[in-house]
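Predict the structure of FAT domain-containing protein.
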Amino acid sequence: MDAYFSMRELLKCLVQRSSMPNLTEEQKHNALMEAFSVVQKTTINTFTKENIAKLYSLRGKVLMKLEKYDDASHSFKTAALLHENVAGGNSVWLHWADFLESRLDIENTEEAALSAGIEALVGIMEGARMENELRARKYIARLLWLVKKLSVYGNITEKEVDAKLEKHGTGIPASNWLPWTLYLGVLVLYLLGNGLSNQSAAVNRPVILESIESEFDSIFFHLLEASRKYITQSAQALSLLHCGKDRESREISLRLPQLVAELQLRPSVAIARIISHVGESNEQQVFYAVAASQPLDFILENVSAAFDPLKNDKGNPVTSQELFRDIIRKLCQNRPVEISSLCRILFELNSVKEHWLEYTLHKVNELKNRLFGFAHRNLESLTSHPIPEDFVAEIRKWQCSLQDFTGFKEISEDIKKCAQDLESDFAIQKGRNDKLTDLLSIVVKWSLLLAAKFDKLPRLLNI
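Done. Here is the predicted structure for FAT domain-containing protein.
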């Protein structure tokens, strides 16, 4: 065992040395050749199966840097085969995925996406399947990014990605999916929202990937805010029912709506299967997610239909609505009492009007997320960039309604003062606060202030 660890550390040092910027190309090559020589001369008779798998993985990494891609591929495959039933060796899958992704980036073709890209996808899912929730995070993160990359290589690649997700994604424990479903919902939303055709995607892949990355955070916060109302209400419903879910499970439910958003935008049997897979052990969280994305009438209708044998359609779901219907039906079959009770509570909660603070906070946060997205696209001229005219027009229109409290209850003097201060701060004047950075400062300030005031509101809800 000591011999293995000594050899592994030596290999890591040599590989790291080959990446040092102050060395010549010849010196880097010599370091890699020395590492390869160490591997070849190592006697593995006394090594465990796990150690042999990791050794072959390191061998593949060295060969990849030496640009001996066929030999590297064989080494990684051997490592994967050896490591199949060995605990603690799952880093093998990440090393192999690194190699396959590097081949995809170099070739940058649909053929490479269908071979190296899909193979990397399967390998990462295999690693995620073997790990616990904490250690699987790095695998799921890589998986989501790779799905995002492969989505620009055309319809055929997209269908193949769905097929592999359906086959291998449901093999990953539901607890490993839960913390990452938030990000999964963002992936295709950006591409669909900007109307990118497969033809244009094929021509501009590097530009598209950079654009996706730059918009990722903005879309993430936008989706989170959009689902906030229903999820907050659902969490209250859960505490009322005392259904036995712990605090961690309730927090995890906040992340689920984004996976549902993916299904709503792009009908995918694979995504639906993963949601159903998560719902087998987390029925309430999945129900909250569906309720956050669909009209209440749709939820009520399909929950009612799920308990009526005459209305249960056994046909294959195709559209997003049909896939949601199928998910709701399965949830009702697994937990009929809880789901029907939650459905009735959601109906009552839907009639509860937002407080003025909550409504205004939503508006400010929506404006903040859009401004940050615009600012990110104009970083080079951010300090001198004026506020766009469409933002100015929208803010002035909103200003006029700030002190209109029609339909809102519990309007205290503090709230009226808050509305006056808001109206004053958002009064854009040329030469005083007409720069984009000025508006960003104001929006961030009021987002924090309104959130603090909203958090001080009573938490009890009378139904």
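The longest helix spans residues 205-226.
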